[in-house]
């Protein structure tokens, strides 16, 4: 019988320094099935790279930021037992990073930005592989760009699932026979071999895609919390970890703002029926959340999520009443400007919709050009400083008393827009960003603490 394969992903805080990387290495070594290790950049590095990529900085300012990155990487390097095994490679990556950061066209060219953004993961994978080796594990560092084929939408590239499977069979499967392969999350390459990235938080997605490509039976997401919680534990101390979740619930939570999973992570898991585990790399003994196709228990209320920085656009035209194709024209303009629409409500003469942060929120949500173009066909108004709060659960449309319980809990708050999801797993509210934290707390109290 073929050995079951596990893909383990470690996030930024899990690979932030030598000591925490050692925890990760122990987790890898303790599971014989772990054949692929996907790593994020060390905590803080990607944010530094984003600031280099998107801000016009003076040469001194660039030196300062690059120095901050160097310090984080050198601290890890210097704790290695045999730093000279990898130091040349790390120096070369840092030189490449420095040159890219000073490239004249960096701020205007997304392809250069992605080259630069990939450096964090390329450095951490080098160091994590070295630490695994010094702990006795036959680990190699593998360039994810050999297998993670994407389109050329730099900064938010779309993976080519078919090509990833074929390339993984050819190039990755032979490597995992004798070694543990450490590779970069978040990073890919297009058909021309140019470096791309999958959007912020994309390493979870990489792990799930590689798990799918290798027919893995499990995918572990090791992070800084002991699983997926009833709500973001940063919003309320009363949040508690969930032992299990269904694919649909997890996908819904990720889409509606639970940062612990990149929104697309569940797609490959669902296609290939891969069980996904979420746990803490610092406290692996505390267990975590198993996400699987079917759960023993499917409660009406499972969790509450919040997605920040939403933009609500209302387009209005008296002509809409009879105008066929008006919505199509509006959405065509939105699509042309690469914005994605989330929640929608309509009335006789108006349509309101929210625009989400693109997964990689380094670009503006709605720009002047989009507004100008929309204004040629209708009246447009834009509201900002809004969040979306979502209750995730099961059979929310049909179970008696579900919505009344939710509405009663938050009757004191002003709800700008209310949407039942097109599936049975969510009920969302657009609310002011000032009130969203309290709304989550009140809902959590009613739904999970009483
Ligand atoms: P990593 O760097 O490991 O990918 P992230 O910061 O991307 O980690 O995701 C982990 C964080 O997600 C947690 O620290 C937590 O604050 C946040 N989070 C938001 N919603 C949830 C939730 N429902 N359950 C657990 N964590 C959540
Ligand atoms: N390093 C990337 C980020 O910070 C990807 C990831 O960590 O998942 O967004
Ligand atoms: Mg993350």
TrEMBL record:
<dbReference type="Pfam" id="PF00696">
    <property type="entry name" value="AA_kinase"/>
</dbReference>
<feature type="binding site">
    <location>
        <begin position="9"/>
        <end position="12"/>
    </location>
    <ligand>
        <name>ATP</name>
    </ligand>
</feature>
<dbReference type="InterPro" id="IPR042199">
    <property type="entry name" value="AsparK_Bifunc_asparK/hSer_DH"/>
</dbReference>
<feature type="domain" description="Aspartokinase ACT">
    <location>
        <begin position="389"/>
        <end position="446"/>
    </location>
</feature>
<dbReference type="InterPro" id="IPR001048">
    <property type="entry name" value="Asp/Glu/Uridylate_kinase"/>
</dbReference>
<dbReference type="GO" id="GO:0004072">
    <property type="term" value="F:aspartate kinase activity"/>
</dbReference>
<feature type="binding site">
    <location>
        <begin position="223"/>
        <end position="224"/>
    </location>
    <ligand>
        <name>ATP</name>
    </ligand>
</feature>
<dbReference type="InterPro" id="IPR045865">
    <property type="entry name" value="ACT-like_dom_sf"/>
</dbReference>
<protein>
    <recommendedName>
        <fullName>Aspartokinase</fullName>
        <ecNumber>2.7.2.4</ecNumber>
    </recommendedName>
</protein>
<keyword id="KW-0067">ATP-binding</keyword>
<comment type="similarity">
    <text>Belongs to the aspartokinase family.</text>
</comment>
<dbReference type="InterPro" id="IPR001341">
    <property type="entry name" value="Asp_kinase"/>
</dbReference>
<keyword id="KW-0418">Kinase</keyword>
<dbReference type="Pfam" id="PF22468">
    <property type="entry name" value="ACT_9"/>
</dbReference>
<dbReference type="GO" id="GO:0005524">
    <property type="term" value="F:ATP binding"/>
</dbReference>
<dbReference type="InterPro" id="IPR036393">
    <property type="entry name" value="AceGlu_kinase-like_sf"/>
</dbReference>
<feature type="binding site">
    <location>
        <position position="229"/>
    </location>
    <ligand>
        <name>ATP</name>
    </ligand>
</feature>
<feature type="domain" description="Aspartate/glutamate/uridylate kinase">
    <location>
        <begin position="6"/>
        <end position="279"/>
    </location>
</feature>
<dbReference type="GO" id="GO:0009090">
    <property type="term" value="P:homoserine biosynthetic process"/>
</dbReference>
<dbReference type="GO" id="GO:0005829">
    <property type="term" value="C:cytosol"/>
</dbReference>
<feature type="binding site">
    <location>
        <begin position="259"/>
        <end position="260"/>
    </location>
    <ligand>
        <name>ATP</name>
    </ligand>
</feature>
<feature type="binding site">
    <location>
        <position position="46"/>
    </location>
    <ligand>
        <name>substrate</name>
    </ligand>
</feature>
<dbReference type="InterPro" id="IPR018042">
    <property type="entry name" value="Aspartate_kinase_CS"/>
</dbReference>
<keyword id="KW-0808">Transferase</keyword>
<keyword id="KW-0547">Nucleotide-binding</keyword>
<keyword id="KW-0028">Amino-acid biosynthesis</keyword>
<dbReference type="InterPro" id="IPR005260">
    <property type="entry name" value="Asp_kin_monofn"/>
</dbReference>
<dbReference type="InterPro" id="IPR054352">
    <property type="entry name" value="ACT_Aspartokinase"/>
</dbReference>
<dbReference type="GO" id="GO:0009089">
    <property type="term" value="P:lysine biosynthetic process via diaminopimelate"/>
</dbReference>
<comment type="pathway">
    <text>Amino-acid biosynthesis; L-methionine biosynthesis via de novo pathway; L-homoserine from L-aspartate: step 1/3.</text>
</comment>
<feature type="binding site">
    <location>
        <position position="121"/>
    </location>
    <ligand>
        <name>substrate</name>
    </ligand>
</feature>
<feature type="binding site">
    <location>
        <position position="234"/>
    </location>
    <ligand>
        <name>ATP</name>
    </ligand>
</feature>
<comment type="pathway">
    <text>Amino-acid biosynthesis; L-lysine biosynthesis via DAP pathway; (S)-tetrahydrodipicolinate from L-aspartate: step 1/4.</text>
</comment>
